[in-house]
Amino acid sequence: MEPLHVRGVRLPDEQPVDLWIRDGHVTYEPVLGATTVGTGWIVPGLVDMHCHIGLASRGETDRAATEVQALASRDTGVLLARDCGAPGDTRWLDEREDLPRVVRAGRHIARPKRYIRGVSVDVEPPALAATVADQAGRGDGWVKIVGDWIDRDAGDMTPLWPVEELRAAVSAAHAGGARVTTHVFGRQALAEALQAGFDCIEHGTGLDDELTTLMASMQVALVPTLLNVVDNFPGIADSGAEKFPAYAAQMRALWAGAPERIATAYQAGVPIYVGTDAGGVIAHGRIVDEMATLHRAGLPLDYVLGGASWRAREYLGRPGLAEGDPADLVVFDADPRLDLATLAAPTRIVLRGRVIS
Questions:
Q1: Residue 118: is it exposed, middle or buried by C-beta count within 10 angstroms (0-12/13-18/19+)?
Q2: What is the largest CA-CA distance in the chain?
Q3: β-bridge partners, 216
């Protein structure tokens, strides 16, 4: 591979550096003959902490559509994605040097008729722990459980699982070397997930002061996918209003309070990460839109950027820009912690030691 050179201010430590890339890896020892490919502010490759590569609104995508999704994310600087559930096998992506690295969570786990058809593995509560153990072996250290969804018999959103089954599921995931996260909208499912010992919460719109304090004390991570909540909850509520008025009212209430709840969670010390929920109704490549939505809710831009870069990588146990790390990085012509417009316009993207743009 051609040796490369980048010069600038490295984040998050704000150190002026000369960074060389040799055989696809970072080094701070000069490399003779390296080509300078960027100057500016150097950031570890961005991370989408909640997306679904290989999934569209109608189910599994074919390889061509999956590639388009991965490229759309990559071209915004997302070089690592935590895939929070996809129905098909996307391991072929790992063979492509030009596509983002993916941390998978296997398939969503839900109950029959309590999630999107054709997306999840559907089981009854007694089989939950065994299914989690199976999916732990299929993922990359993560398992995803659907915590609540509309119950048409009840006419409202309700939890899918008894708490004792959730506890057994968390134990099964941990025994299999995986962390476990959950899709939750409402308060009850969120409270029960915390009782059961989940490692991470997706969406989390049911937060209140009590649960926020508990999450902060436990240091349970939150990925709000706030763009999806803000853009789509009203339409979801409207679509079900005539037949399920209680459900529609709950979705509208969760939508109205979501930005303030996320800001309160940040202030309380809940660790928050940036995920787009791309792959359903949200298009891939919208990581900056999600960061902007979180920033408008009251989170500082430098914190948000960390939650989509160095903090996210540390949480996932993935490398940053230390000596010998894989050369996955983004270069900006100004400090990206100060301006969303800068974040939206990287001047150089380097993936696996190769210049992408």
A1: exposed
A2: 69
A3: none
Residue type (1 letter), 183: H
Q: 6 CB contacts (<8 Å, ≥6 apart)?
A: 18, 19, 20, 21, 36, 37, 38, 39, 42, 329, 331, 348, 350
Query: Which residue's structure tokens are 């789509």?
Result: 232
What is the sign, positive or negative, of the torsion defined by CA atoms of 222, 228, 234, 237?
negative
Structure tokens that stand for 177 in this block = 């070397």
Mean pLDDT of 220-234: 97
Q: Are 37 and 321 in contact (CB under 8 A)?
A: no
Give the C-alpha distances (Å, rounded to integers) separating 48 from 72, 84, 100.
Answer: 12, 10, 10
Whether 7 and 18 have beta carbons less than 8 Å apart is answered as yes
Q: Which residues contact 280 (CB under 8 A, 6 or more apart)?
A: 52, 55, 56, 57, 116, 228
For 117-142, how does the pLDDT look when each residue is reduced to its tens digit (9 = 90+)? 999 999 999 999 999 999 999 999 99
The arithmetic mean of pLDDT across residues 328-334, rounded, is 98
Selection from 284, 306, 279 nearest residue 295 by Cα: 306
What is the pTM assigned to this prediction? 0.98
